[in-house]
Amino acid sequence: MANEPSANTHFGYDRPIRARFSGGVLEPLEPLALEEGQEVFVRITVSKGKASPDWLERSAGSWAGLVDAEKLICDIYESRLLQTRPVPKL
């Protein structure tokens, strides 16, 4: 990007922060060591929100129809029969 500082530019305060967008303004969710009116460079990454405790239940069945479970199980057991390591000399 043309307005983005180069990688070798030194920033005195360079760390990610969390902020909330409200009323057309980004509001930091933690204190900042900045002077009033100081300009900053902002890179925005939108979070998907907090994972709820029921994430496992919500994901159940999401692979249904995408994988042949019986074939997968057979392939796993078949791969265990392969002898890929040399027999150790005792």
Overview of the structural elements:
- The structure is a single chain.
- With 90 residues, the chain is of the alpha+beta class.
- The protein has a domain at 19-80.
- The protein contains two helices and two strands.
- It has a two-stranded antiparallel sheet with strand order 1-2.
- Strand 1 (19-22) and strand 2 (25-28) form a beta hairpin.
Number of helices: 2
Strand line-up across the major sheet: 1-2
Distance between the termini: 63 Å
- What's the helix-strand series? EEHH
How much β-strand is present in the residues? 5-15%
Oligomer: single chain
Report the strand count: 2
Q: Look at the helices and sheets and give the structural class.
A: alpha+beta
- Average pLDDT across residues? 79
Overall body shape = elongated
Low-confidence stretches: 1-8
Radius of gyration: 26 Å
Helix content: 10-25%
**Main pleated sheet:** 2 strands, antiparallel
